[in-house]
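User: Structure tokens for this complex, please. No commentary.
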Amino acid sequence: MKQQVRMRVNGEEVVEWVEPRRTLLDFLREDLNLTGPKKGCDLGNCGTCTVLMDGKPINSCLVLAVEVEGQEILTIEGLSEGTKLHPIQEAFIEHGAVQCGYCTPGMILSAKALLDENPHPTEEEVRVAISGNLCRCTGYKRIVKAILDVAKTYRVQGCER
Amino acid sequence: MKNFEYVKVKTLGEAVDLLAESRGKAHILAGGTDVLVKLKQRQVNPEILIDIKGIPGLEGIEYRPGGGMRIGSLTLIREIETSPVTKEYLPVLAHAAHLLGSVQVRHRATIGGNLCNALPSADMGPYLIGMGAWVLVVGPEGERKLLVDDLFADSGKNSLGVGEIVTAIEIPSWSPHTGGAYIKHAIKNALDVAIVCVAGVVVTDPLKKVFEEARIVLGAVGPRPIRPKRAEEFLRTKRIEEKVIIRAGELASEEARPRTTIEYKTEMVKVLTGRVIREALERIPRG
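Assistant:
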């Protein structure tokens, strides 16, 4: 039996009917066609499904869509302003912090949550912040460098972007 | 996962009634970081999932001068990790919270959920048991209070009756000559489950020469956290010296009951118990 759920996704009001067992991840990918959040392990171990819920990073595979009622979701699709990339995205490109790209959306959102809370983190704090996001290509060196670099000039913006 | 009905309750009474009425066919949902996995793997197949996050008053960390602490069951692990109150008055619990799951998991997982899930490796368990903490429970028969130690029944099984819900955790206050520690031994620094984890709470005389009391709790080496009573009794009234600490580690390891990699885990209990006692001694405030 479907239930109605209302939430804001990337700044837009969304009202949909979903089965209670639908995870937020499947809801975003299948119902809203937002395929930025990836389905890796689907058990909360890999972090590639990370989205921000009211500004906080969570595994969208471990949340039911119905639980998100009245809350705000940000996926990687909502981070850039049109074709203008977010500074964290720019830094990832600049530093070659992307290889296959599968972990990148989650990695960038974890970085954003960190910098919004703590705009000038230490390297250790960056490593802890992304420790729930697994990268199997490169190791984490360039990712950490990109985040530390963007932190030098990072300004916290409105909570929607 | 099988489909179910999702009900978000607004009061404790509603949750208790619904749980009691559905006679085992309902399951509570708090942070969901364990429940969602169990649903997906069909370890639990409830007809009704009762989301308790809408019940007011079940979250928050409260320090009562001289009276210990109270932590609401829905308090996020992230909150326990980062709150200035826990960092000041219960830094070992804040540290244990930091070691649980990942940032993402800690933003959803709750202290009540971690305890009720009752895994022998649960990071919130050992130190709270060592501190003699209680859980407050509401159920069809009213309220009751039980030791966190008694909440753990068997691996993945808590001792709550049908319709019972944990509402808060109470941590008693201890003498000023008390120190605690928690060490989690795992392969990775994040997203990992303890191979062995050990918590310790030690009380000494004011001059820090003698152990007045010691509590040791071993996690992940049995179906539930273990208090190695012989090690604890051995330490009481003993002089604080290295050979005593080493002996306590040996005694603790004899009481561990690991089912896998037995020799390794037993050896690790010996080593980690010693480390936990030394670290706990260092944490005793000076003066």
